[in-house]
Design goal:
Strand order of the largest sheet: 2-3-1-4
Number of strands: 4
Distance between the termini: 6 Å
Strand content: 25-35%
Largest sheet: 4 strands, antiparallel
Structural class: alpha+beta
Helix content: 25-40%
């Protein structure tokens, strides 16, 4: 069982291709984004933070770089 964690979600797309394109653009800027989900919506998220405070800091950093997002809690899971 994996403990719950926080992520910053930047977008959600109906198309996996669109989500992947955004992730590639973010990674080119040095932002460690990923696509989450195997069916719609395909979410673009950054980070796996142990505390909400860590996620808030990342959210602020992303906002300063022009990327608005919101914090989401993920898990716990059985992965």
């Amino acid at each position: 069982v994996v403990a719950a964690y926080y992520s910053v979600q930047l977008a959600a797309f109906e198309s996996q291709e669109s989500a992947t394109r955004m992730v590639q653009q973010l990674r080119a800027k040095g932002i460690g984004a990923r696509v989450v989900g195997t069916s719609q919506p395909f979410r673009v998220r950054v980070g796996r933070f142990p505390t909400r405070a860590d996620a808030v800091k990342a959210q602020t950093d992303l906002k300063n770089k022009g990327h608005a997002g919101f914090i989401t809690i993920v898990g716990p899971s059985t992965k």
